[in-house]
Amino acid sequence: MHGIRGKRGFTLIELMVSVVLSFVIIGAIYTLYGQSVSAYRIEGQSMDMQDRLRFGLEHIKRDLRRAGFLATPNSQIDGSVCPKPTDALRAITLSTSQAAGSVYRSTENVYVRPTTMTLFGDFFSGRTYLTAGITGNQVILQATQAFPDTQVAFNQVFNPTPSTPSRYLRLINQDQFEIYLAITGADFVSRTLTLESAVPAAGGGTLCGITGFGEGLEVNVTGFVRYSIVPDTRPDADVGKTDLVREELQLDGDTPLPDSQLVIADYAIDMQFYDFGFDLDSVGNSPSFVQYALVDQVADDSNGGFLGSTAGTAIPHRLRYLTVKLTVRTVNEDPEFVFRPREDDKFEPLVSFDLSDMQGSCRTSSLASRVELTSLAVRNLVGGP
After folding, report:
1. Contact between residue 164 and residue 224 where contact means Cβ atoms under 8 Å apart
2. Per the domain annotation, does 194 fall within a domain?
3. N or C: which end of the chain has fewer CB within 10 A?
4. Which value, to the nearest 10 degrees, does the dihedral of the CA atoms of residues 154, 156, 157, 160 take?
């Protein structure tokens, strides 16, 4: 009986080939895994930025559409407003001036110049109320269905900060003239509003006031809100973090109301406006549209100031549409994402943001939307330069 011949094992060359192939397969798997993890991370960052953009842009669009709603678009030229308020009341004002810290590492992140937007209108209830009577600077409201049913709701509309007046009562008299007086106090139980001065009485050749006891007149609440990119100054905030915030302003339309700041979009780095459409018709019945592409053409007072802060040249009431674009960034830099600064401040997209001297940069995402200003179109106020 022949002995069983022994089985032949792997030769050294075959073993080496097997090891090499194993390393190649493992390397390929590792590479695919790394690429999948990176793609998943980038997709997650993109989705997070899109969520923040949609939320922020919807807030901006909502308030833009209410600019001038139940309010004058421009008190300085509005013939229905009398007497004229001391501070100009304008539906929309844009400023390109850069606040300190609004752009982190501004030397590296060139041409990142967020615009600040101030709006005036009824952003607080969107309702009109009826007066039961007016005596001096005291206005008593009727207990109609529109009247707030709780003191908390009442204070949110009429008296959010008792120590710092920030809202105007807009009163429409019997001849449809509008009177704006600051609300300095409000009492829910008696439904009484206290104003900065007595409501003027009509007579003596003027219609700028009320007659009789002032009952049955329509009133509503108006004020200023501002959107801007500001640094996050909280102690636990990330270094270089800026946010899009909405804040209410005091009666001058410039000074922030304490504790009114609301973060609308975290890690926001830019807010731009462009493609402005104005109706320059001087009579109000034959539209004459003119479009300006850049914010510098309409915001700065030295360049016409159509939406600037100088009341003499401002014509916010003639604005019919504009486009707003918001840009946010990722929380951290990606070492593999090469930083490319914006090349100009016109229409060049912002694709990256430099946060440190380390290699790489933050990814960015932008979202834009055109907004029709229906409140200003419906009012169709003419006048101005």
Report:
1. no
2. yes
3. N
4. 110
Q: Global pTM?
A: 0.89
Domain span at 112: 45-379
Tally of domains within the chain: 1
In a domain, 331, yes or no: yes
Tokens of 151: 């003191």
Q: Which residue has the tokens 């009509």?
A: 202
Q: Express each pLDDT in 272-312 by its tens digit.
A: 999 999 998 877 778 889 999 999 899 876 666 899 887 67
Would you call 341 exposed, middle or buried from its count of C-beta atoms within 10 A (0-12, 13-18, 19+)? Answer: middle
Residue 30, in any domain of the structure: no
Q: Is residue 19 part of a domain?
A: no
Instruction: For residue range 51-65, list pLDDT tens digits in order.
Output: 999 999 999 999 999
Q: Which of the four pLDDT bands, split at 50, 70 and 90, describes residue 362?
A: very high
Q: State whether residue 154 is helix, strand or coil.
A: helix
Rounded-to-integer distance, Cα 246 and Cα 106, Å: 23
Distance from C-alpha of 224 to C-alpha of 254, rounded to nearest angstrom = 9
Residue 28 has pLDDT above 80, yes or no: no
Nearest C-alpha neighbor of 242 from the set 268, 265, 262:
268
If DSSP codes are grouped into helix, strand and coil, which group holds residue 375? helix
